[in-house]
Design a protein that fits this description.
alpha+beta; 4 domains; five-stranded antiparallel β-sheet; four-stranded antiparallel β-sheet
């Protein structure tokens, strides 16, 4: 076959493979001329991909066959430009063009598939966005519905009468039964109107009762005045009844002797004696007051001032003579004598015996320092039963700390009289606290009971003498009783704590679950310096909650390999002021409230939520309840802690407590709040 024939055949094959031509009409010399343009996009829609694949395999096979024939011809000696080689090479070119066409069609199909996928994806995105908008609107509507359902009006806090009582007692113009029985809203409005009407009536009754009360008080004052006028006659009757009193062994004579001795008391002790006797007779039969001391020496102090001045002049003359005899007198001896004279007691003192409900007795001894014009007190406790003295309870009933901070910030270490500071400077006394153990504590409430008032005490600026003493007597006696009862209760509790037993009363059993696995293994007292040195108590000391007058204790709660250390600050005014716990957990490392949110939450459980652990009034079980709560929340902490599932064997702390949720929030806080009726632990 010639070369021209091969070219004609090639052009014919190309025209056949190009598919139906596209006709374009052009303008030229007014004649329409058909221009056939090859367009693969027109042919693309009509072609079958499977047939194209078969054609692709056929072309590849033919191409491989032709390549083999060309190689065979060349191997047999055919020259490069021979007819057979050129013919097969031309056929190979035709098959290459077919493969190119099929490749273009495949790319076009791929592009169309991608375009269709992109369009479908856009439709899906639009529909997804519409779905999200609808879900957001649904969530917003649900929140609004929840707000409406949870809305609480102020009237819900009012305890209204029942509907039966309302229809029975309310007048028809307020109840309107024909309207309110079918309309709950109108019924509520009508009940509120009736409540308002009732309260107006009660207000009128209150005013009438107040007027009646004032009238009765006036009549009482008149009767009191009449009773006071009977005093002279009663005194005469008492004198006439002395033989009868002796026959009946009544302590009237002793009372009279005490009254006679009281005439020689210094004014502050006399005010205290009179007010304490009056309060004991009127309100507290368990309070007894007695006077002790040297009566003769007290009478000697009552001599006229001229005699004392002469004695002073004689003593001064004797001192001058001694000074002239001694060329180098010792200044230290003179200062000691002056200090002893400055800190001298009055010969008479008062003794209070305050009997508590449990039979224990608080003995108070009141002294008056004549030159300093202040009163001091010493205390002693006699328990009704022999208590097993705990080592950690040594500071509880000690005289130096028993009455500390009976009122807020009243430590009794320094004298409340500002003038004493100048007196101390003259004789070289640096601080009155150095003599407190010997002389007693000059608490501010002691000065108030004696009617002493100093300018620094601005709280009672309008009261003086007996009025000041009477205004403080009742409250102080109640505080003293509460203090001794709380200290004795703590002493019993500490004896149990040192034996790793947490005493829980029956009234407080509902505060804790039935099964508590953590146990108190150690309890002891520590000093203020030891407490300050602990690293996990820094936040308490920085907040000013740890003072030198407080008592400090240390305890250890253990379960398995976990060891929880607790440092406790016990204020002298316990249980009025809650003990403060600082915690440190040694388990898989050391943690404290400063580094671990859950340890901080455990401290809050025992420090902040005091009312839940108070127990029956007056709350003497607060400390032991706090320690028991500490054991419970340590169980919850360990049981809800994530443990390594890859370690073989049983879990060290199996789940014993029932929790609604083990953790909550970004801080992964654990459920430490105990719900008694359900026996569950939940988050606060």
């Amino acid at each position: 076959m010639s070369a021209d024939a091969l070219k004609k055949r090639k052009s014919k094959v190309l025209r056949n493979e190009a598919g139906p031509p596209e006709v374009k009409r052009g303008r030229g010399d007014g004649d329409q001329q058909d221009v056939r343009v090859y367009n693969e996009e027109v042919e693309f829609d009509s072609r079958n991909p499977e047939q194209d694949f078969l054609q692709y395999k056929e072309a590849c096979e033919n191409l491989a066959k032709l390549m083999g024939e060309i190689q065979e011809l060349k191997a047999n000696g055919a020259k490069e430009g021979s007819t057979e080689v050129e013919r097969r090479r031309l056929q190979s070119c035709i098959h290459f063009m077919t493969l190119k066409k099929l490749n273009r069609l495949a790319h076009m199909r791929l592009k169309r598939g991608r375009d269709q996928t992109h369009e479908a994806k856009q439709k899906v995105d639009v529909l997804h966005l519409q779905l999200q908008n609808l879900l957001y609107e649904v969530l917003h509507l649900q929140k609004e519905i929840s707000k409406c359902l949870e809305f609480k009006s102020k009237h819900e806090e009012i305890d209204l009468v029942t509907e039966e009582e309302f229809y029975q007692d309310a007048p028809p113009e307020i109840s309107r039964p024909q309207l309110t029985k079918n309309d709950p809203h109108q019924l509520t409005l009508a009940r509120l109107d009736w409540e308002l009407e009732q309260r107006k009536r009660l207000a009128e009754q209150y005013k009438e009762s107040q007027a009646m009360k004032e009238k009765i008080q006036k009549s009482i004052e008149v009767k009191k005045e009449h009773l006071r006028s009977l005093q002279p006659g009663l005194n005469a009757i008492m004198q006439a009844s002395l033989p009868v009193q002796d026959y009946l062994s009544m302590p009237v004579e002793q009372t009279q002797k005490q009254t006679e001795i009281a005439q020689h008391l210094p004014p502050p002790l006399y005010v205290l004696f009179i007010q304490a006797n009056a309060y004991g007779q009127a309100c507290d039969k368990n309070l007894s007051v007695s006077i002790s001391g040297d009566v003769d020496e007290a009478k000697a102090l009552s001599k006229p001032p001229e005699d004392s001045q002469d004695d002073d002049s004689d003593s001064d003359a004797e001192e001058e003579q001694e000074k002239t005899k001694r060329r180098r007198p010792t200044a230290g001896g003179q200062l000691d004598d002056k200090r002893r004279e400055m800190l001298k007691w009055h010969p008479l003192s008062l003794s209070f015996d305050l009997i508590c409900k449990d039979g224990s007795v608080l003995h108070l001894f009141f002294y008056y320092l004549m030159n300093l014009n202040i009163m001091t007190v010493k205390a002693k406790v006699s328990a009704s039963t022999d208590l097993t003295t705990a080592i950690s309870a040594g500071e509880l009933v000690k005289s130096d700390t028993l009455l500390s901070c009976l009122y807020a910030n009243d430590h009794g270490r320094e004298t409340p009289n500002p003038a004493n500071r100048y007196q101390f400077d003259k004789i070289g006394i640096v601080s009155f606290a150095d003599y407190v153990e010997e002389l007693g504590h000059p608490y501010k409430w002691v000065q108030n009971l004696g009617g002493l008032h100093f300018p620094s005490d601005s709280s009672e600026g309008a009261l003086m003498g007996s009025s000041l003493s009477a205004s403080h007597m009742e409250n102080t006696i109640k505080l003293l009783r509460g203090r001794i009862l709380s200290r004795l209760a703590l002493q019993k509790q500490f004896a149990s704590l040192e034996h790793s037993i947490i005493p829980i009363t029956s009234e407080c059993l509902h505060l804790f679950p039935a099964k508590i696995l953590s146990r108190l293994t150690f309890w002891t007292t520590i000093t203020h310096e030891d407490y300050m040195a602990l690293p996990y108590t820094r936040h308490v000391t920085d907040a000013g909650l740890a003072k030198e007058t407080d008592m400090y204790f240390s305890g250890v709660v253990e379960r398995g390999t976990a060891r929880l250390q607790a440092a406790v600050v016990l204020n002298p005014r316990y249980p009025e002021i809650c003990p403060v716990f600082s915690l440190s957990l040694n388990w898989k490392g050391e943690r404290s409230g400063r580094t671990d949110d859950n340890l901080r939450a455990m401290e809050s459980e025992v420090n902040v939520f005091k009312n839940e652990l108070q127990g029956p009034r007056p709350g003497h079980q607060l400390l032991t309840n706090q320690i028991a709560r500490l054991c419970v929340i340590l169980d919850v902490y360990l049981e809800t802690e994530e443990q390594d599932d890859g370690v073989e064997g049983p879990r060290e702390f199996p789940r014993e407590k029932m929790c609604l949720r083990t953790v909550r929030g970004p801080n992964r806080l654990k459920p430490f709040k105990y719900n008694h009726p359900l026996g569950l632990f939940s988050h606060r």
